[in-house]
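Project standup — Tuesday

K.O.: blocked on the structure for the chain from last sprint. Re-posting the sequence here as requested.
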Amino acid sequence: MQPIISLKNIYKNYGQKAVLKNINLDIYPGQVIGYIGPNGAGKSTTVKILCGLISDFQGEAIINGFDVKKNPVEVKSCIGYIPELAELYDVLTPKEFLTIMGELYNLPANVVDDRINTMLAAFGLEGNINQRMDTFSKGMKQKVLIVSGLLHNPNIIILDEPLSGLDANSVIVVKDLIGKLAKDGKTIFYCSHMMDVVEKVSDKIILINEGTVIANGTFEELQQQQGNNSLETIFSHLTSNENLGNTADKMMNAFK
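H.V.: unblocked you, prediction finished:
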């Protein structure tokens, strides 16, 4: 089986700062990849490369057979990208915004209408379909963003903190949706700081720190390597230079 996502010898600098250092990844159809790391580790830069938003990097990125540098439009057409921040045209209604998204992907109007109605109703937004989004909460906007990333039924779904702003019930829905999309053969690249979710939904977990992959395997494999611990504990052990348990005590010293 050929990988559907392949990163080879990826380097990326911002000025003199090296953000990614020789990243090599092969991801196969149907896998759910949990991509985790501390702030500034290079996660968002990796995502932007995968989405064709950054082209001035060294190395080779192949997505669904397309070279990200040479064929960015083809890459963007076969992925669904759901970022953390719901930057929408919020003077539009969900219906108007999602209809535009459907037209960009050349979907038939009847298919777009059916998917908009079905997916927004599943998120409890059927009563808001014709309401301007500048009145929406962050969670409501995030739901519209999730629908927009899935509207064209992409084979590759890239999630960058997709649960931001969602209430507890919606988080459960999205977690369940990730599992069902994977069973349907979708490949999911999932960036998150929510270790409990990553632990439960991922087939493989990739831990990046200071631009370098420092762990790559199933949760069970990481446990074998690092002790029978939670993913949160493994993450802290591999990425922290000090005992995090003392951090709260140090903060409290400010009030003494």
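K.O.: great, moving the ticket to review. The longest strand covers residues 17-27. The mean pLDDT is 90.
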